[in-house]
């Protein structure tokens, strides 16, 4: 079966996923594309022989769309996801699932009322080979009970429109999801420390930030977010257990020895760093749609991430340790 995919949002990652669905992933084709910028939708659709439609609702309703991919900007996600659920169509939504916990909850209610899972959220690190290998080590018990996780998320620069809260909502949200998944544990509180600011930033931005999370089982997690580090896109993660540690491998690259120095490249862009993870993620989504059983990061994971992000932003503004207020995972999302 070929899964016909309709795409809502033809920006940077939307266009990249369209390319991926058309040239890398098997068992899928893009049949319809929309964007509030109609020219952009037309150009991306034409590149793969798809139709460009005027609105997200038209994409959702189209007879030649079996499943929907939402890659518009965050505030537009909830409307498209709710529309797809109302139409009974599987929907892959890039992070964030929605920009408020309240909207995430509406999605959970709609999906639960529908009676089976339709939604997958774009937390692609769960599909990265290095993180998957780390999880296998943790789950095997080889390093004992995990006690601490140290993370760093560094981007070379960010544009002026990136503000201090985005360090949580746009950036650390990946670590928030990854750590919950790696440890199989829930984050119960958040605190943010604000070091001296780098001079390589726009005036309004607090950069870097150090985020401290505590899990229900008592593990401690620190996340350094530094989005103007200048030197590259650098993702680090180390879990420390009672009897050992496990560290995320850096992407494989040749080591060069020359002129008395040993060196290697540092990637510059998230698209390159997680390219293979996106490929695996979208292939597994297409396969699950074809099999009629959507899996992967769920609406509950999107909701949990939103609640933890809200607590973290409050912690940034108040300097306090803030409880995330998360209740138990419903049986529907077990
Ligand atoms: P972008 O701004 O390049 O693209 C967004 C596109 O959506 C634009 O073309 C815009 O015109 C369109 N759009 C906005 N609202 C729309 C609507 N209501 N209907 C149709 N189209 C609409 O942004 P981007 O960098 O591609 O990011 C898109 C999403 O992907 C964001 O949610 C972002 O957080 C997420 N993202 C995730 C990762 C990741 O690593 N998983 C990386 C980058 C972006
Ligand atoms: P972008 O700004 O390049 O693209 C967004 C597109 O959505 C734009 O073309 C815009 O015109 C369109 N758009 C906005 N509102 C719309 C609407 N209501 N209907 C239709 N189209 C609409 O943004 P980018 O970087 O592609 O990010 C898109 C989403 O992907 C974001 O949610 C972002 O967080 C997520 N993302 C995820 C990444 C990941 O690693 N998983 C990486 C980059 C982005
Ligand atoms: C972007 O939206 C992403 O999701 C990237 O993965 C992340 O590294 C970057 O900081 C975000 O802006």
Structure description:
One of its GO terms (biological process) is inositol catabolic process. It is an enzyme of class 1 (oxidoreductase). It catalyses: myo-inositol + NAD(+) = scyllo-inosose + NADH + H(+). The chain is α/β, with parallel strands linked by helices and 334 residues long. It has helices at 12-23, 38-47, 56-61, 77-86, 101-114, 129-140, 166-183, 270-273, 275-291, 299-318; strands at 3-8, 28-34, 51-52, 67-70, 91-93, 119-121, 146-154, 187-193, 209-215, 220-226, 234-241, 245-247, 256-258, 261-263, 322-323. It folds into two domains: 3-121, NAD(P)-binding Rossmann-like Domain (Rossmann fold), CATH 3.40.50.720; 126-268 and 305-324, Dihydrodipicolinate Reductase, domain 2, CATH 3.30.360. The strands form three sheets. The chain has a seven-stranded mixed sheet with strand order 12-11-7-10-9-8-15, covered by helices on one side. The radius of gyration is 20 Å and the shape is globular.
Helix/strand order: EHEHEHEHEHEHEHEEEEEEEHHHE
**Major sheet strand order:** 12-11-7-10-9-8-15
| Helix percentage | 25-40%
What is the averaged pLDDT score?
A: 97
Q: Report the sheet-strand fraction.
A: 15-25%
- Cofactors, ions, other ligands: nicotinamide-adenine-dinucleotide, 1,4-dihydronicotinamide adenine dinucleotide, (2R,3S,4s,5R,6S)-2,3,4,5,6-pentahydroxycyclohexanone
The biggest sheet amounts to: 7 strands, mixed
**Which outline best applies?**
globular
How many strand segments?
Answer: 15
Number of domains: 2
Rg measurement, Å: 20 Å
Q: Briefly, what CATH class of the largest domain?
A: Alpha Beta
Derived structural class: alpha/beta
Distance between the termini: 28 Å
The number of helical elements comes to 10
Low-confidence stretches: none
CATH topology of the largest domain: Dihydrodipicolinate Reductase, domain 2
Tell me which CATH architecture of the largest domain applies here: 2-Layer Sandwich
Spell out the CATH superfamily of the largest domain.
Answer: Dihydrodipicolinate Reductase, domain 2
